[in-house]
Structures are given as C-alpha cells and as structure tokens.
Specification:
Helices cover 48% and strands 18% of the residues. By secondary structure, the chain is an alpha+beta fold. It is globular and about 45 Å long.
C-alpha cells in the first residue's frame, strides 16, 4: 500500500462525477483507492496484477499535479509511458525568481507550454510549483531538456529550435509519434 498526498482542490477531479473517475482508475490500474478528502491523503492498495498496480500511485499523483484523468490514465496504455515532475521552486532563488521562472515556462498566453506539448508529443502541465510531463522516454527527455534550458535562462527562440529539432528527430527515427491532442 502506498500513500499519496494531493492538493485539496484536486480531490474532486480524482473522485470524478459520482465517483466515476475513481472507479475507472480502480478497475484499469487494478488498485483500491481510499481517499481522505479532509487532508488530501490517498491510500493506493494493489488488488490485482502487481505490475499494473505499480502505475496506480503515479496516476493519482499526476491528477494531483494538474493532469486531466484521461491524460493520467495514459500511463497504463504502454509500459514505456513515464510520469515526471520538475520542481520549479528548487530552480529558483526566491519568490520573485520563482514567479519569473514559472512565467517563462508557461510563456505568453501559455504558448511555451503549448509548444513543449505539441512538439514533443507529451502531455505537459504546470501546476503550483511543478511542471509535470507524461509521455514516452524520448518525449519526456525532450520536455525536460527544454524546461531546463528555460530555467537556465536560454532565450525562448533557441528552446523552440531545440524542440523543433527533437520533433524532427523523433519523426525520422520512425518512433511512434502521436501528437498530443489535449
């Protein structure tokens, strides 16, 4: 059994309308969820295939970090699907720097986050002090590298060029490239 803590405002999303989302996670990930809506603690207990159940806590964490339930459930579609978090606050010197860094990652009108998502094929969400990524290994690597470039102060133009290059590499390698339709 694993315990996952999620923000109060994401509990409703995890449960879903009439418990629909919770039931879908339980059946598809072969786990049982015990949600404490008072403090945001979720107990994730394996009830079926232990390998499938390993993805259960990641699905709950992903929803807690701002992903839509459908995006989080994509972790079950393929053994290679990964969920990764980047702590923006850890890369910041102070509150003002944190706000600036987060703003740079989001971009004007959300354009930078959108481009990271479109060009990598991964799902990308910025929520609170984290940037979350769900995708295959190559997709997650591309977004992580792009985010690190932005956090290190690289101009957006060079980050976009990097993402374009990665996008083309993934297409040419014949990787199953699925444009994320979020």
């Amino acid at each position: 059994m694993q315990h996952v803590k999620i923000p109060q405002d994401r509990i409703g999303v995890l449960i879903g309308e009439g418990g629909e989302t919770m039931r879908e996670i339980e059946s598809r990930a072969e786990v049982r969820l015990d949600i404490d809506s008072e403090d945001g603690t979720v107990k994730v207990e394996s009830v079926g295939d232990p390998v499938t159940a390993l993805k259960g806590p990641d699905i709950v964490k992903a929803i807690g970090r701002g992903f839509a339930p459908d995006d989080a459930l994509a972790l079950l579609e393929d053994d290679m699907m990964m969920f990764e978090l980047i702590d923006i606050e850890a890369a910041s010197r102070n509150k003002n720097d944190f706000r600036r860094q987060k703003g740079r990652l989001i971009g004007e009108g959300g354009r930078t986050r959108e481009l990271m998502q479109e060009l990598s094929g991964a799902a990308v969400v910025i929520y609170g002090s984290t940037l979350g990524i769900i995708g295959g290994p190559e997709q997650v690597d591309a977004v992580r590298e792009a985010a690190e470039m932005i956090l290190d102060g690289a101009p957006h133009g060079s980050v976009y060029s990097f993402l374009e290059r990665k996008h083309n590499e993934m297409k040419h390698k014949g990787l199953e490239y699925h444009q994320f339709t979020g």
